[in-house]
Amino acid sequence: MPVVFLLSIALQVACAVHVVRSGRPLYWIWLILIGSYLAVLVYVLIAVLPDLRHDPRGRKAASKALQMIDPQRRRRELQRRLELSNTVDNRRHLAEESLQLGDYTNAQELYQGLLTGMYVTEPDFMLGLARAQSGQGDHVAARRTLEALIQANPGYKSSDGHLLYARCLEELGESEAALEEYRVLADSYPGEEGRFRYGRLLARTQRHAEAKDVWQAQIRRAELMPGYYRRKEQPWLKAARLELAQLGEP
C-alpha cells in the first residue's frame, strides 16, 4: 500500500478524532474523508491551529517542538530584546538561557555584568555565576562564589545551590566534606539527584555497604511516589539501579 495513501488515512483519522473530542459538527468527518489532503489542510487551519493557540498544553507542545527544531530561537529573541532595552531583567533572562544552552562562557560574562552596584551581592545572580563557573570546570571559582553568596546572604536558601556546592567539594577532592553536604541533601533535595550522588560518592570512597543502603532506600522511596515523579526522576533512578547492579545487587 503506497506510503502517501497510508499517510492520508492517518491524517484523516487524527482529524476525525479531533472533531469528536472538540465537539465540532460531525459533518466535518465526512468532509475530511471525502477531501483527503485538501480537507485535512483546511481543517487544520480552521480548527486545530486555533485550538492549539488557546490550549495551554497545545502552546507548551508547540513551544517544545520549536525548541527542538531551533534551540537557539529563544536566545536570539532575548538577544534582540537586550539590544533594544539594556535592562537588568533582559540581561538576566539571556544569562539564564545561556546556562540552559550550555554556553557557560557567555553566561559568566552576563552574570558578572549583573553583579554590580545595588546587585553586587544579589544571591540569584551569584548562584548563576557559580553555575557558569562550574560548567566551565572552574570549581575553585564556583566554590568561592558560593561561599561569598552565603556570607553576603546568610538567610538565602537554595537546594540547587547546596547541591552545586557539594559537587564542587567532590570535584576538588574534599570527599569527606562533600559527603557531609550530600548526607543533608539526601533528605532535603527535592528530587533524586542528591540521593544518587550521595550513594555514588560513598561507593567511590569504598563504602559500598552504605552506598547500597542509600540506593536501595532511594528506589523504595521512589516506588511510593506518584507516577509523574518517577517519570521525571527516571534518569537518576535508572543510574541508581545500574550502580546497584555493578555492586551485585538485583
UniProtKB/TrEMBL annotation:
Keyword RNA-binding appears in the UniProt entry: no
Record's keyword terms, sorted: Membrane, Transmembrane, Transmembrane helix
Domain of life according to the entry: Bacteria
InterPro entries linked to this entry: TPR-like_helical_dom_sf, UCP030959_TPR_rpt-cont
Residue spans crossing the bilayer: 26-49
Name of this protein: Tetratricopeptide repeat protein
Organism of this sequence: Dyella soli
Taxonomic lineage: Bacteria, Pseudomonadati, Pseudomonadota, Gammaproteobacteria, Lysobacterales
